[in-house]
Amino acid sequence: MTQRIVVTSGIPGSGKTFWAENFVKENPGWVNCNRDDLRKSMFGKAWDLTKEQEQHVRNARNEIIMTAIKNGLSVVVSDTNIFNKSYEDVVNLIKGFS
What we know:
mainly alpha, 3-stranded parallel β-sheet, 4 helices, 52% helix, globular
C-alpha cells in the first residue's frame, strides 16, 4: 500500500475530526492524529495551554506521525490547520523521509 498523509483544514466545528475518525474506521492502515485530542489527553483541556504545553503537544503529534509512517501506516492530521505554518510544520516533518 502506498503511504499517504492527509492534512485537513477548516474552521472549528466544521467536521474535520468527525470525517477523519470515520475515514480511519473504514480504511485499514490509516491512523488519525488530532492535537485537540492530544491536548485533552496530556493536559485535561483542549485550549488555554501555555506555549510550553503547546510545544509538548506538537512534539507528541510529530512523534505519532513519524511512528505511524515508520510502521507503514498512512496518517490523517485532523487539526484546524487554517494557517500555513501548521501545514508547513507537517510537510517539513515528513520531507525527505524514506
